[in-house]
Amino acid sequence: MNASPALPPFLAACRRQPTAHTPIWIMRQAGRYLPEYRKVREKVGFTALTRSPELAAEVTLQPIRRFAFDASIIFSDIMVPIEGMGVALEYAPGPIIAEPVRTMKQVEALRPLVPERDVPFVMEAIKLTRAGLPAHVPLIGFAGSPFTLFSYLVAGKPSKEFSVPRAFAQAEPEIFARLMDRLADAMIVYLRAQAGAGAQALMLFESWGGLLGPNDYRRIALPPVKRIFDGLKDLDVPLIYFANQCGGSLESIATLDVDVVGLDWRVSLGAARKILGPARAVQGNLDPAHLFAGPDVLKSRVDEVLADAGPGPGHIFNLGHGIWPETDPDAVARLVDYVHEKTARK
Ligand code: CP3
User: Fold this and answer.
1) CA of 45 to the centre of ligand 1 (A)
2) Residue 2 belongs to a domain
3) Measured between alpha carbons, how far is residue 333 from residues 36, 40, 57, 100, 340 in Å?
4) Has 219 been annotated as catalytic?
5) pLDDT score of 61 more than 90
6) CB pairs under 8 A, 24+ apart, for 103-112?
7) Structural domain span for residue 230
8) I need a labelling partner for 149 at 20 to 30 A (CA). Which of 76, 81, 197, 246 fits?
9) Can 32 be counted among the known catalytic residues?
10) Atom 21 (ligand 1): residue with closest C-alpha?
11) What mean pLDDT is predicted for residues 67-85?
12) What percent of the chain has pLDDT over 70?
């Protein structure tokens, strides 16, 4: 099979078509490991940055100017539409909610999201970024999964265990279910608006679903995710589900109608592919810590990921989670170049 000449490698890989090389981008590729990002942040706070289409487009493009990435992700945050629904929050640097949402009254008071009214700057940033990107670098739009957003809303702050929201989901099943429904409805319209503005793939971040056991995952996290993807399937854009630490729930994830499943480094891509089946591409899954290895060790870690993904089409190289702020940008350049070189097909 020859590589598809028409589609950019990232979009072809999402569709499990052969590509001239394995495409690569990395989660949090616009962020604090880049001196040019830190420079922008010296002058403007994170919230103001997400609300300025010009500045959001600028920081989205920064890593694309520096590295040969095959995809771009719009600079924003999963909590931006939550603010649009009327929840006051700030970033320090993770999201802190002024009044954690824990009553039915608070859930009912959430404003149904109207993206063009509540977060117009995101669609503006997408349009500006698309205009500044090379044709072969598609732009990804994104949102948080209902369970991940719920975790922040109820905990009110970042947490390792999210014990408060996990207990809440068990103790208050009605409030929980209503909140998950409200979040799913909002993320459907939000992601549709991003595609309408020019996002060429849509990614849902299930950052904290891995805190759930497989039965809870299937019972409470999966149904709203299914509903979101069902609400997007008429759009002609690939759908990506980042299932962080959800290795124990892959059988459930295999039932989702998505093009790509993103995986963290705790699972083997090869083993995951056996469960997910041939109809899905995989994205991942280098440990962000491996960017701190010397050049030769980094190459061998990359070789392991590539071997694990296998020779077939449908692998998008990425880290298993966001890049760490302490990472040396030169290591990223070495990573991108090596993945391209090693996977070059004629
Ligand atoms: O380049 C990109 O990946 C796009 C930008 C992006 C950000 N947040 C910017 C950001 C994306 C895709 C996100 C998604 C996001 N936000 C997720 C899902 C991905 C994941 O990591 O699991 C989550 C859970 C959040 C919530 C959130 N926002 C956290 C936990 C933090 C602190 C992160 C940190 O690195 O300390 C934020 C703030 C945030 N979002 C920053 C960035 C670059 C750091 C803010 C700063 O500049 O001070």
Assistant:
1) 14
2) no
3) 15, 21, 21, 40, 11
4) no
5) yes
6) 103/175, 104/174, 104/175, 104/178, 107/175, 107/178, 107/179, 107/182, 108/178, 110/85, 110/86, 110/182, 111/84, 111/85, 111/86, 112/85, 112/182, 112/185, 112/186
7) 9-343
8) 197
9) yes
10) 322
11) 98
12) 98
| Peptide bond connecting 93 to the previous residue in cis, omega within 30 degrees of 0 | yes
Whichever domain contains 220, its CATH number is: 3.20.20.210
Ligand 1: does its nearest atom lie under 6 Å from the Cβ of 196? no
User: Is 67 part of a structural domain of the chain?
Assistant: yes
1: in domain: no
CA-nearest residue, atom 42 of ligand 1: 31
Number of domains in the chain: 1
Coil, helix or strand for 231?
Answer: coil
Angle between helices 329-343 and 295-309 (to 10 degrees): 50
Is 118 among the residues known to form the active site? no
The catalytic residue among 32, 66, 227, 266 is: 32
- Ligand 1: which of 26, 27, 28 to mutate, judged by most atoms within 8 Å of the beta carbon? 28
Instruction: Give the pLDDT confidence score for residue 3 in this predicted structure.
Output: 57
Q: Is residue 3 part of a domain?
A: no
167-220 pLDDT per residue, tens: 999 999 999 999 999 999 999 999 999 999 999 999 999 999 999 999 999 999
Mean pLDDT of all residues in the chain?
97
